[in-house]
Amino acid sequence: MSAVPVLGPEQRAAAWEALASEEFEVLVVGGGVTGAGVALDAVTRGLKTAMVEARDFASGTSSRSSKLFHGGLRYLEQFDFGLVREALHERDLAVNRISPHLVKPLQFLYPLTHRVWERPYVTAGLALYDGLARFGALSEPMPAQKHLTRTGARKLFPALKPDALVGAVRYYDAQADDARHTLTVALTAAKYGATVLNSAEVVSFTRVGGRVVGARVRDVETGQEVDVRSEVVVNATGVWTDDLQTLVGGRGRFHVRASKGVHIVVPRDRINGETGLILKTEKSVLFVIPWGSHWIVGTTDTDWDLDKAHPAASKADIDYILEHVNEVLTTPLGHEDISGVYAGLRPLLSGESEDTSQLSREHAVARPSPGVISVAGGKYTTYRPMAADAVDAVVEDVTRSVPASVTEDIPLLGAEGYQAMVNSLDRLAEQWGIGRYRAEHLLNRYGSMTPDVLALAAEDRDLLQPVPGAEEYLMVEMVWGAAHEGALHLDDLLARRTRISIETPHRGTESAEPVARAVAGVLGWDEERIANEVDSYAARVEAERRSQTEADDRAADAARVAAPDTRAVAVGRALV
Predict the structure, then answer these.
(1) Minimal CA–CA distance to 325: which of 372, 357, 278?
(2) What's the pLDDT score for residue 84?
(3) With pLDDT > 70 as the criterion, what percentage of the chain qualifies?
(4) Farthest-apart Cα atoms in the chain, separation
(5) CB atoms within 10 A of CB 522
(6) What's the CA gap between 363 and 86, in Å, rounded?
(7) Mean of the per-residue pLDDT values for the chain?
(8) CA–CA dist 543, 560 (Å, integer)
(9) d(CA 260, CA 272)
């Protein structure tokens, strides 16, 4: 078994052949973190598994979160102790065992604004939060809460207005690049033998005697279709759960509503602070989160019933974030400070409340039709137990005995040997002549696979040059993304394999052509295809910029969907 799976053009062709010719025990539909988690859980139990994703891995909710691995402090106020405990366990499991290269501890300040009652109230909540994390802790727990005076808090976060707080409490959570993490879960599933494909859309289901026994899957890149045979199909499509259930036929056992969360990204020098910040608003929680050389600020929490593939942030969303964060900052942020904006959709299980912030973050597993298992809801942090519960349901439908979940003991790709490589960071940097900070950046993206990534530059040292317009990344990462990580379009590389689309003022347009030319040899692009990819990406960025000037959701949605969809363009090109 290869230590580093290859999701490149040759593997893609072989995977399509496997889908058409082999019979699977589990077909997972959806390539977000839940679907990838289900694929990994199933294949590591010995089940013959395939996973298909209509767009790109993590192209939906799983690349547009707050980038946090956290227990969900606000759920304590809703007395949802079970959810918080589960999420804290998963947070610490990721930090300490499963993915230490991807999930990192992060300290937060909780500013206090009332002198008498608030400190004991917050203290009690954070003591419970820390206590739930320590209950059955896997290893040395994160530091406990620490109380700070106003002066002490402003030493850690000088950007806070003096009158914005009377003191603060510091506590710890964790963060991760959600798209990179989701991709790594999918790659790990591939390592253990799962057939994994993006740009593979389920267009119908196959039934025998009323039972679903497979699906017809279309290659979004070519338009070709194959029939896939599977004992069980798992619907792990997040906000598309109801759409897929409609395709299956019949009513689902639960319904999923989409709640839009918008974040802005600003350069690190715009806010003077050393920690994260959590602020309560009248509608949701607002985070100010360190993100490399940037800050992520968000989020909103509003109902969304428009285009699910490209949720749009409106000017009203951005103004809401700026208004609330500026209430506590000495130097206000303006629209001109924003490098990037992104909008994501939370898949919430429908409840009686019309307030999306009160809808359940618990997950649910159901059997809506014979041969189909649906899993939805939950939080990014709890993807692994969600997946395990879904596969537990799958086990009841397969025709042989299947062992229990083992993913708690399965490190993600790049985790094994990661700490030893951290200890040899200087040697790695010297070997490749890339500087210590670049080596560290790579280790926190690829872990112990970093030497494999850099080896692509052994015969072409130009690949060790920074990406034009995005100095934090190296060109070799782009080639690796195309050759090993299933990237098929510029958007895949600039928005998910890297985060150039939200981390640069040009949002990737200055990087697009050099990157397209660098990967053209791997992906077989000619000059016409290079130009089409660059033009399509530029149109996407322009549409997003226009949408962010519109006053409301409907106008923003209309502006965003006006841009041609890269994958739709790919199908049209293939069928000509």
Answers:
(1) 278
(2) 87
(3) 95
(4) 71
(5) 18
(6) 12
(7) 93
(8) 5
(9) 28
User: pLDDT per residue over 198-220, tens digit each?
Assistant: 999 999 999 999 999 999 999 99
DSSP per-residue letters across 81-109? HHHHHHHHHHHHHIIIII-TTT-EEEEEE
Distance CA 435, CA 539 (A): 35
Angle between helices 509-523 and 527-547 in degrees, nearest 10:
140
Q: Of 518, 436, 503, 519, nearest to 470 (Cα)?
A: 503
d(CA 570, CA 34): 26
Confidence band of 576 (pLDDT split at 50, 70, 90): very low
**Structure-token pair, residue 73:** 């402090």
Kind and range of the H or E element at 511? helix 509-523
DSSP label at 311?
A: -
Q: Nearest-CA neighbor of 48 among 28, 29, 30, 26? A: 26
- On the question of pLDDT at 407 being above 90, the answer is yes
Other CB atoms within 10 Å distance of the CB of residue 39: 33
First-to-last C-alpha distance (Å) of the chain? 39
**Residue 43 binned pLDDT confidence (cut-offs 50, 70, 90):** very high
Amino acid identity of residue 484, one-letter, is H
If you write DSSP's letter for every residue of 495-547 in order, what string do you get? IIIS-HHHHSTTTTHHHHHHHHHHHHHHHT--HHHHHHHHHHHHHHHHHHHHH
Residue of 550, 540, 544, 541 whose CA lies nearest to 315: 550
Is the full-model pTM beyond 0.90? yes
Q: What is the DSSP string of 394-427?
A: HHTTSSS--PPP-GGG-PPTT-TTHHHHHHTHHH
- The alpha-carbon radius of gyration of the chain (Å, integer) is 23
SS3 190: helix
